[in-house]
Amino acid sequence: LPAISVCGCCWALRPRYKRLVDNIFPEDPEDGLVKANMEKLTFFALSAPEKLDRIAAYLSERLTRELNRHRYGYVCIALEAMEQLLLACHCQSINLLVESFLGTLRLLLEADRPHLHILATGSFVKFANIEEDTPSYHRSYDFFVSRFSEMCHSDHEDPDTRIKIRVSGIRGLQGVVRKTVDDELQVNIWEPRHMEQIVPALLVNLEQGNSDSPAEQTEVCFRELLGRAAYGHINNAIRPVLMHLDSRSLWEGGSFAVRCFQIIMFSIQSQHSHLVIQQLLGHLDANSRSPASVRAGIVEVLSEAAVIEATGSVGPTVLEVFNTLLRQLRQSVDYQLTGYYDNAGKHKTTSFHEKTLQDAVIKTIGSFANTLPVYQRSEVMLFIMGKIPVPGIYPALGSPNTGRMIQVMLLKSLSNLLTALPSSFLEPLLSFTLMDDPEIRLLVLSILTSLIDRRHNAARITAVRYFSEMCVSAVQHAQRLYRHVFLACKEESNGPSHYQALFILLVVLSVELVSEEVLVDLIRLILALQEMGVTNQESLSVWNRCSLHAVCAAALHVLSQTGPPPPLHQHVTQVIESRQKGAPHLLPESVLCDQPRYQNKPIRRHLLFVQSKVCEALTGSSYSTQCERLNTPYTPQLTGTHSSPVNKFVSGFS
């Protein structure tokens, strides 16, 4: 009994705060925190804030003692008490309480029990959501960044436990970001040393995206992190993403890389989009000597990012974006021809992989161009035209194949910039219709059609047939265009695709420019092409001449239904019906197909479109004033001096 009395006296002599702390622990830990006694402890702490540091230290001591004894129920009770004190206290002394609290969490996170890691993380998240009234000058979260990042990589043998640990790690990182990102006195979470831990930890879980990975929670955290990034933080946040995709070879295939940057572009502030683009462009240059699949993956991401970013936010160096892409295009052509993607000739590549990359670059050029206002797109078109090598002007092209392939690639990239048609752009473009290379001529015809076809009628024309319903738009410097169409038809190396493209161009012109003067000009041009096929002064093959007649028939059939009086359509229909009966080789169905059928024999008058009958068909209508011009055979002009409505109508087009 005396011993018991002594112990009782000793307990009574203990400091009050210790007695209050001891009283919150029940005899059976399963009963949980003694709420009534916790209220007394909280009241005491609020009444005597100078005791907070001692209360916190003693709670930490109790928790450590219970932890060492593996009495985890009491550990939970001690931690809960600390949390309640944190929520209740907003005075200056809270910093003393926080230091003990964070020290306790560090202790739990260093233990070898996963459930303690999860417990500590949950407690940290609650703390992170508390808005403190007083600044903290010397608080460090480095340990928590490191430990939470490590938890995100957990490979615990039990799948359920692994997911719980990873989710806790992600929530912990989210808590660190929330606690530090808006407080200038806290650790700078955007420093590379922190970002290089946080970002890969999130991407690993985002990458797996299955039942074993908390991808949804990860994406929420990643978006929140990026959404809080200021202008000066973007590069530090993006660089670890690029490094992660490099180290895990995730550019190839592209789907995960694209998803990452879709999240990035949708999460950051729109005015910062161009910083991401610049990082990607720099990374593309840095990977110039990587396999084509890696380069293609980066380019695909660039294309998707360009679609997402706000209009015109490519940044201050618009032409540098296109210069980088064109440089990659030129480099890929060199790699394709040499068969190696390095100067040492050690790493092989294939035409297939390089062409895949080239297609991706061309698509990306179009994606970027569509984010620009019209005037900038015109500048970009001229910029690309200036990069197209012309024999005799750019002698340092290397082999002829190199120059030809670069011409083809750059012309393909132009086809994605469907916008204005300035005169300084038209003349050099038209000059390519006269080149010997049939592929280049075909590309130029397609580009011209696309530039004129403002209402996308060409997409409806899948073969050379007879059409009757189209729409309206415009083109500039018509006589130059007519001249180059005429000269392009003289090329012996023209194939079915060329005549298809010529037909589409003539149809688009006739339906886009519903003007009496323009239609008469086109009729004159078509009659001149027919004459070329009849006289054969250019020594074209039989198939080429038959193809010319077929194109003229198809084009006139459409043109005769876009405004001229019915007698013209009747004449065209009569000639076509005569050909169907006695000369089907002069129609597209027979000659412009996989197995052409044609023959070399004189063409009788009733199988031709006759200028006098065309003129007669137009007499008595509003076209009468144009008939005199029909009597003058078309001859190509060297300069566009003709003052047609085309030139007037498109003044706002450039």
Automatic annotation (TrEMBL):
This is EFR3 homolog B. Pfam families: EFR3_ARM (PF21052). Belongs to the EFR3 family. InterPro entries: ARM-type_fold, EFR3-like_ARM, EFR3_Homologs. GO terms for cellular component: plasma membrane. It comes from Xiphophorus maculatus (Southern platyfish). It comes from the Eukaryota. GO terms for biological process: protein localization to plasma membrane.
